[in-house]
Amino acid sequence: MGYLDQKKLSSEDSMRYFQDVLSKLDLSSGREIGTQLGFSPKYFDAMYAIGVKYYDNNRLEDAIKILYQLTVVQPSASRNYKALGACLQAKEDYATAITVYGSAVALAAMDAEIHFYVGQCQFLMGDFSQASITLKLASRLCEKYPDKWAHIAHHAKDLCARATQRAGKEAK
After folding, report:
1. What values do phi and psi take at 145, rounded to 5?
2. Which pLDDT does position 18 carry in this prediction?
3. How much is the pTM?
4. Is 140 within the bounds of a domain?
5. Mean pLDDT on 139-161
6. Which H helix or E strand runs over 161?
7. Can you tell me the distance from the alpha carbon of 122 to that of 119, in angstroms, rounded to the nearest whole number?
8. What letters, b where the CB count within 10 A reaches 16 and e where it falls short, cover 122-134?
9. Spatial distance between the Cα atoms of 115 and 111, rounded to a whole number of angstroms
10. Range of the domain at 172
11. Would you say 84 and 100 are in contact if contact means Cβ atoms under 8 Å apart?
12. How far apart are CA 47 and CA 153, in angstroms?
């Protein structure tokens, strides 16, 4: 009987199981943890879909747990960070959302939505100057790739103008 087959795990059993799993990983291989543990692409897609469904149903804590775990086992997927950031943004934890979105930007720098969401967080935190810069980048990406980002182009441009206006008022 394996550790996970038991109904109750002691903290020592949990630690042994965790150490056993870690001992099987080759962190220098360049392969993602989830792949090394045998998770299939379908598993990642299913877990992502569940996390997004929780988000859609305003079960943010459940969504955050799943999406956070996905960022650990599949760290090269920007969508996981983007969705986790959206959950944190919905909880009005803007500073943490910006940090998480930063990981998504590192993986998908040309994703206008991520920059737009970061700009929204900055705007809502009252950092209008930085929001203006970020939203300007989002707007430029929308202009450069109109087929891909048309659905946010107007919103990014509008919020950028509002942030720029507020930043100007603060500077006076």
Report:
1. -125, 65
2. 58
3. 0.82
4. yes
5. 96
6. helix 146-171
7. 5
8. bbeeebbbbbbbb
9. 7
10. 110-172
11. yes
12. 30
